[in-house]
Batch of 2 targets.
Target 1
Amino acid sequence: MTDPRHLLDIPSLDDATLEWLLSRAGTIRDYAGPGLNGTVVVNLFFEASTRTRVSFELAAGALGARVVNVQADSASVVKGESLVDTALTLTAMGPDVLVVRHPDKQAVHGLADRLPGRVHLVNAGDGGHAHPSQALLDAFTLRQSGLDWPNARIAIIGDLAHSRVARSDLALFGRLGAGELRAAGPETLLGELPDGVRRCTSLDEAVDGADAVIMLRIQTERMDRNGWPDKVVYHAEWGLKPEHLERAAPGCRVLHPGPMNREVEIASEVADGPASLILRQVENGVAMRMAIFEWLVHGLGWR
Ligand code: CP
């Protein structure tokens, strides 16, 4: 391909690409050929990750690509090298895709302007800004579960103010035509909401008749310690418990992007219960990231 493609955020993806990724993730696990043979992927992570880093690695490996993992605390950033210099150094070694997670919200976009055009850049989460691959796998999981998008009521609950997942989910679910998007959480953790998202003042209001509920953890790494809520108080007011699901629509799905804090934002009976799609999200993360690599390296329509 001559034009470089990056996965930076949801708004920068056009409708055809969104549809292709959501559809391709549904069939790609049957794939057996060496679609990314000879491709080299570098995972460059400046923040902790379990799901995202491992699933990008497994997705690349499943397609025949080679993967190099670079964890910031064991890289030359600890000797003062900047993100841009680290990324330029790595790309000088010839990888095709650079998957980056960073605590600063413009870090990955900033890199897109600095890297050579042949390198594809993937935003694996940048501060509180965007986590597009998580939003795509969330939408794929909801679609796979049979969600009726035009009539769907989807509630996102918890610390939306610091959540890149919430920002990307809301952007994507709006694009996919969700019937109603709701947000709820402590006033101090709700922040500004995109146009069209209904601000609910209680957990009961948010889950009432909901077809899907997405729970978020309190992102303490992005807030002053003085702003950390008491966990017991938080669970009492904002933790999703079995009684809440009785208010939701029949068949309501429960999602959580992880990492999950049991008995804080979600009770174990819910996390492990029949409504939970949490491990399905993790499973689908590999398929979605395989589709993302295919799109980046080969373009739309490749099989
Ligand atoms: N959902 C998510 O980004 O999880 P990790 O931090 O484990 O990658």
Note: Residues 151 and 179 are 5 Å apart (CA to CA).
Target 2
Amino acid sequence: MEGDIERVLISEQQLAQRVDEMARDIAACYPEMDPGLVMVPILSGSIIFLADLIRLLPMKMKLGMITVSSYSGAVTESQGASLKMDLNIDIRGQHVLIIDDILDTGGTLRLVRERLRLHEPKSIRTAVLLRKPSKAPKDVVADFVGFEIADEFVVGYGLDYDGHYRNYPNIAVLKADRYTTG
Ligand code: 5GP
Ligand code: MG
């Protein structure tokens, strides 16, 4: 796996430090409240971020899951977000925090927010680990953002290319020939 990496953009240590800061910001935003908080990770890219983040949060919470796909197979351009598996938990009257790996064109977040609103939660906020500012749309904003990155395709810390590299601990760019050969 290491041999496929061109360059590390964000190291494991930088990720840990920033996720810790994000957890503090998020905790400050949700003081002990009733009803509780529901985390809704967008699968599968957000799983590592989710696992690290929620273990740093002190409040009681439930986890819901929703699966959206915009890249299938060996591609690095979004093909438009589509719902693969709907929310598996009741969020009516609850505070919801959507967790995603990266905000790019905004199609994924827009779709998920529209879906979740149908269930009439009390509030919806969003935390994303990464944001590509060059494409970040005006109307789709995240409440909590880890890092701004340049407009290049990244892998690691949950993010995949053609299903691989989710377990790579840093955020990185692959060697150019790895993208074309899949
Ligand atoms: P959007 O719908 O905002 O265009 O894209 C968000 C989704 O596309 C993310 O949840 C992620 O799954 C995927 N995505 C966007 N940029 C990248 C990237 O650089 N690398 C990877 N692995 N996935 C990306
Ligand atoms: Mg995703």
Note: Residues 27 and 130 are 19 Å apart (CA to CA).
